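Annex B. Sample input.
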Amino acid sequence: MRYGIFGGVFNPVHNGHLVIAINALEFLKLDKLYIVPSFSPPHKRADFIVPFEWRFSWVQKAFKGLKKVEVVDLEKRLPSPSYSVQTVKWFTNNVGAFPFFIVGEDSLSYIEKWYDYKTLLDMVKLVVYPRYCGRPFEKHAREVMGEKYDQIIWLNTPLIQLSSTEIRERLRKGLSVKGMVPESLEHDIRRIYGREKW
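Annex B, continued. Sample output.
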């Protein structure tokens, strides 16, 4: 089966995530795309992340009705913290080898900090969606990844500058996020992230 893995903290999920998923399905001609919310992300401060159950529920609602997409709570059942390499190993053993692994271009700036990143790169077809014009992380990524860099599949999708960080900041300032998050989730997301503390 030709399948992809699109993981993330989704703190919160936003419409940019939907655009990326739809384009990945079409561009990569996937039979299935698994959306994998991170349970315990190793590179994020815990106090900035709302509980997994909320994030997972929101992601389920956001992607509901999209054919060939399945939201899974796999990382809740795997050892913590949620390392990408162990997630990919599970999929490799249970679904199929060499999945398309979808990440943002900004990940290339610190990919060497991912746990056992060399093993991860050997197990996947790395798919990168654009985040910044001019690919400012190209030099760094080439130095870290070597010949693996030339095997990157660049996702043909509009430049997505929308981020969960930006949405959280806007809500803390009382600004609108209309059109940025799924309409069905806007009330809940505004209620939770509009607070000073969770």
